[in-house]
Amino acid sequence: MTTPTQIRGCDFHCHVDLLPDPTAAIASCERERIVTLAVTTTPRAWTQNRKWTVGCRYVYAAVGLHPELAGERHAEVGLLEKLIADTPFVGEVGLDGSTQHRKTLPAQRDVFVRALATAQSVGGRVVSIHSRRAAKDVLNCLSKHTTPSRVLPILHWFSDSASLARSAVLQGCYFSVNHRMLATEAGRAIVLSLPTERLLTETDAPFTQVDGRTSEPRDVIATAEALAAVRGVAVDAMCLALRENANRVFAFAGLDGSLGV
Ligand code: MN
User: Fold this and answer.
1) Mean pLDDT across the stretch 139-150?
2) Dihedral sign of CA atoms 98, 104, 106, 110 in order
3) Rounded Cα–Cα distance for residues 185 and 108 (Å)
4) Which H or E run includes 200?
5) Neighbours of 125 (CB within 10 A)
6) Confidence of residue 2 (pLDDT cuts 50, 70, 90)
7) Which of 36, 108, 131, 173 has the fewest CB atoms within 10 Å distance of its CB?
8) What is the CA(3)–ligand 1 centre distance, in A?
């Protein structure tokens, strides 16, 4: 059960600026107490996202440069580095080794490594990471360029092997889980293998759907319930653990006590 001051859910990876009505979505998160990390795909989008979220209690903007855009927008990497000094939240960054994007991997790696190195030098940075078909490479970059005391990595929509998930746990990674992961056998197996204290929820909206509509941050409430069912625990216990995990992440980012558990 939640009390009126508690957060009701957390969406640790949402493209708020790509939703049909971003300001309405933000107002809804504030009203419904859904903590939301508004990730961005280019650092140029940061200013608008920051403006929308200034004064928000539940919605925070993250500065990113998506690996799928790292080739064509490589010139923005300097802006990304500069803005990482201004916000504890970084994302979406990472690597994409799928057939369609493999050719830009050198540019992707340069952007990702520079984002990680900057986050490491500033410290207290939480990074939401894309790792499709590149999880091993992502973990190598993390171990080479970051330490768990300065950078907290969140692997978003992790879809690689259980053994790489285990390595990621040992490296201090958290995992933001969406309902699409829980819909596949492989996804459920990964989720079952993770320690409770590393679990977070997300939507990756607008890139996922629920009941034929675009998902929205409040859908994480149902994801938390599904997560409890997959792991065979009570919904209340799962929600409490998720709130505690979110608080730990926010405390790492220097925002102690800003979310009521
Ligand atoms: Mn995304």
Assistant:
1) 98
2) negative
3) 30
4) strand 199-201
5) 26
6) low
7) 173
8) 30
